Amino acid sequence: MTLLAELTGDPASERDWEEAKASILQALEGGVSADYQGLLDALLLRIPERNSPLLFAADMVTAIILVFYELRDRAAAKRIFSNLRRFGPPGWAVLYSLAGFSLALSLVEKANRQATSLLLGYAQQFREHLDNLSGEDKARLSDFVYEVLRAVGL
Question: Which residue range is the domain that position 90 belongs to?
Fold first, then answer.
């Protein structure tokens, strides 16, 4: 993405989106023994630097899913994943559900405290970005959520 596009908040170009998406999915598929902590840490550091609302949101949904992944063996988390899958692509409801889950994670005792604190700090901006994304970008992001869920086996 050009500097001008980043400064003006223009939507991510198709190339930028495809590169970011491929990078995240490749990192997820390369997770050693399903340990995604390194990727989660990198995402949490990168999120506030993202100038593109779509790329910010893509990093956020991935980070939220990875924090939930850490809780995957808990009964409540299993119910959440089945409900997320029920929304089915390309529903925007899954995006707003994940925005709410980022807040709910801060209340989960066994959740990664550092990650949930950072996600909580980014939650308002995430919601604003979701509200301002075009319908096309929301559909791309919604489809991406399901790709991330598949990549981590949820």
Answer: 14-151
